[in-house]
Design goal:
With about 350 residues, the protein is α/β, with parallel strands linked by helices. Helix content is about 45%, strand content about 15%.
């Protein structure tokens, strides 16, 4: 799959842009575990052109994380064009436009998924940004504003006509927010449209390697994007790619042609052992503290600790989880990790 001249290989797996999650430290960690492309947190065009420090800081990308995309959002064309130029000057490989963020403070003001209620403005804005920069421009959006307005099949063609070089589709409407199940059928319809010639990337509810492979094979997408399933689990990219690779090899080696004969790959024996994954969480904590200080870093990492699958299924773990999420210092948190490793996790 290529975006412009950027070759991401076959069936790339990407880290989705997420506010207060995909900072530089987390992007680099996901990159080390196999993410084929990473995205910054989304950047407000208005804040960027006003020089708000936090927004400007989000533009900082490094060579180690390439290919990397900066994502911007806004509600009017002049500020989005100016922000696009500022983002391009920061040196990303790709500029992504956010037409998918569903949160009220963004969408209710016309930004993010709010643009799904004003398609003429969305298309005019997209054309203006494509004309304003020299790097590939891509778009991330949703199926539509609500169930009665799932317009993505037609919209995809219109966005392609504006000059974008890839389209990412989250399989929910804005009104769904993050509830219910992602509907991939319309993503598949966009990909199957013979008039579409740009890469189509699918996003939504990819939480396991098995589901990732199913999305590639059933819906034909060129790439997939993993978001919330990466919380506290940066190794998911390695597991997905190893599963796809090993399953593909097994299919090629079959002589009967019966895919039902494919042996399931036990993810617990393929990836990192649990103690090694705990070391990865320790490293996430260190990098978060180094970036934001101890108080801010610990606060930032809590969503990863709350969501990590590493501790799921451990009997009577709730009291330990509560202590872990209430820890205020790195030493306190690491003492709890050590306790978990000594008494709960199976060492290998």
């Amino acid at each position: 799959m290529k975006i412009g001249t950027i070759d991401l290989g076959e069936r790339p797996v990407m880290l989705a842009p997420m506010e207060d999650v995909t900072d530089a430290a987390f992007r680099l960690m996901c990159k080390r575990f196999g993410a084929d492309m990473v995205y910054t947190e989304f950047v407000s065009a208005d804040a960027l052109i006003r020089g708000v420090n936090r927004s400007v800081d989000k533009l900082r990308v490094s060579d180690e994380e390439r290919p990397v995309a900066i994502q911007i959002y806004g509600r009017d064309i002049p500020s989005m064009v100016e922000a696009a130029k500022l983002a391009e000057a920061a040196g990303p490989d790709i500029l992504d436009i956010n037409y998918g963020c569903p949160v009220k403070r963004v969408a209710s003001k016309g930004g993010g998924a709010g643009m799904l209620r004003n398609i003429p403005l969305m298309l005019e804005m997209t054309r203006a940004i494509v004309d304003a920069v020299h790097i590939p421009v891509t778009v991330k959006t949703r199926l539509g504003w609500d169930h009665e307005h799932k317009i993505i099949v037609e919209l995809a063609e219109q966005l392609q006509d504006c000059g974008i070089q890839a389209l990412t589709i989250h399989g929910r409407t804005r009104s769904q927010m993050y509830t219910g199940e992602a509907d991939w059928t319309l993503i598949g319809q966009v990909k199957a449209n013979p008039r579409m010639h740009i890469p189509i990337i699918g996003n939504g509810d990819i939480t396991t390697p098995e589901r990732a492979l199913e999305c590639f094979e059933r819906y034909g997408v060129d790439g997939i994007m993993i978001g919330r399933a990466s919380f506290g689990c940066p190794w998911i990219f390695r597991e997905v790619k190893e599963y796809i690779r090993s399953t593909s090899q097994q299919v090629n080696e079959l002589t009967s042609g019966d895919e039902a004969c494919i042996p399931r790959v036990d993810l617990l024996t393929r990836g990192l052992v649990d103690s090694a994954k705990l070391d990865i969480l320790r490293q996430q904590v260190r990098e978060s503290v180094a970036r934001a200080g101890e108080y801010g870093g610990i606060l930032h990492i809590r969503r990863h600790l709350a969501a990590t699958p590493l501790f799921k299924g451990i009997p009577n773990f709730r009291p330990t989880r509560i202590r872990m999420l209430r820890a205020n210092t790195m030493d306190e948190l690491f003492d709890i990790f050590d306790e978990i490793e000594r008494t709960i996790l199976v060492k290998n």
